[in-house]
Amino acid sequence: MNPALHRRPAGSPQTAGAARATAGRARRLVGAVLTGIATGVAVVVIALLVREQWPPLVQLDERAVTAGPALAAAHPGLLRTLVVWQWVFLAAHVVVPVAALCLVYWWRTGNATRTSWALSTILTAWGLSNLLKELVRRARPVLDQPVESAGGFSFPSGHAANTAAMTTTLVVLVWPSLRSRALRVAAIAGAAVLTVATGVDRVMLGVHHPSDVVAGILFGVGFVLASYLAYRHWPTPRREPGTAS
Q1: Residue 30 and residue 163: Cα distance in Å, rounded?
Q2: pLDDT at 2 over 60
Q3: Rounded to an integer, what distance in angstroms lies between the CA atom of residue 159 and that of residue 190?
Q4: Where is the Phosphatidic acid phosphatase type 2/haloperoxidase domain (predicted)?
Q5: Where along the chain do its domains lie?
Q6: Burial class for 72, CB neighbours closer than 10 Å (0-12, 13-18, 19+)
């Protein structure tokens, strides 16, 4: 039998579909690279402004870390809430329940590749945020009457970076299962509220400057989005029933 009779025509639907899939993966890879670059540039710019003591940024940071702790000290109930929030959203305390939620997702959907992406992204973001602290080595705010203390360096805020990374990862992870617009809006809003509240907590306790918090949030969200776009670039086994990438 002549093999040429079974050769797939150049313009067949199968060939066109493969070309579209390849083009789609290429676009996602480019998007991942651009997102990663944009995130890195944003964090580096803030770090350089911090290092060069750019007056507008320094003034904003100083005003915030003076007013925030003063307000907290004047309201003992608020101060206790801030301290509890700080403890709850410590990365070491959040990783375990977030990992458990990822495993529950895997158990419910059977999507092991997506779950593995989520877990590896969370742990990588945690490690990189700590590495950034060591690279920048910014001292924490120094107050005459501190209401709380924290060790280590200040930039970026580990609490803000890890909360942003974990909440963003969870939203992306469960996104295919959120069938209604209301659920998707609620997921995004919930992640935003938890992340912003954690950032505010750090400033009001006087253990971080606002610029630390902003850099942490930008890093956490940007890293996860870049990671997800890169994950979607790589060919994966045929999608499990009831899931989507």
Answers
A1: 26
A2: no
A3: 17
A4: 115-228
A5: 24-233
A6: buried
The average confidence (pLDDT) of the chain is 86
pLDDT of residue 9: 54
Q: Which of 94, 91, 73 is nearest to 82 (CA)?
A: 73
Determine contact, residues 196/213, Cβ cutoff 8 Å: no
Residues 6+ apart with CB under 8 A from 42: 215, 218, 222
Please give the span between the terminal C-alpha atoms of the chain, in angstroms, as a whole number: 41
* CA–CA distance, 189 with 195 (Å, rounded to integer): 10
User: What is the C-alpha to C-alpha distance for residues 76 and 62, in angstroms, rounded to an integer?
Assistant: 22
Q: What are the b/e assignments for 169-181, b being 16+ CB within 10 Å?
A: bbbbbbbeeeeee
Least Cα distance to 226 among 154, 169, 176, 157 occurs for: 169
> pLDDT for 33-56, tens place per residue?
888 899 989 999 999 999 999 999
With 0-12 CB in 10 A as exposed, 13-18 as middle and 19+ as buried, what is 157? buried
